[in-house]
Amino acid sequence: MRIIALGVLLGLSMGCYTVQLQPISEIPGQSFGETATIDVLEPSANYVYEVRSFAAGFGNRWRIDVGDGLVQYAEAYLRPVFPEGDDLRVQITIEGFDVRDFEAHVDARFAISRESEIVFNRKYHAQGVGHFAQTAWGGAFAMKSSMRKTTDEALRSLFEQFLTDMQREGAFPLRREETSTD
After folding, report:
1. Does domain 14-168 have CATH number 3.30.360?
2. d(CA 41, CA 93)
3. Distance between CA 150 and CA 126 in Å, rounded?
4. Position 113 pLDDT exceeds 70
5. Contacts with 9 (C-beta within 8 Å, 6 or more apart), sequence order
6. pTM (2 decimals)?
């Protein structure tokens, strides 16, 4: 009887939880005066990361829908500054994602092309804040929340870094210099 009870308890203590990021609204921004197609390339758009935690029960797994979040953040952050159109193509690719010490770490590349010519290509790194205390006290369900928060923080940081570079560089080299033929 004890073995059966132990088996049932062990079965109930293991699970797989899906961590989906909360949808976000558009982030207001000043347009760069160019339209763009925004592409989160495959397999980045479907990127899923699995993590386990001793603090929240090692028998559990958390699947973080990083790619889905990246697509949502791209629309929220980039659509206000690059309205839909064909002037540019903004491509975003996840080059790495992991969770260390309850902190999400993400590396992503932002490439912008105009008529097949790459005019901007930069890799960014961002990390979220660790939420260990929340997880240690709350267990499996708190782990889901802490993974959502840290991933959200990391993705927001990526897009903020990218937009800061665009503003600092005056959208250079996105704009073509007009030449006079006088």
Report:
1. no
2. 6
3. 10
4. yes
5. none
6. 0.78
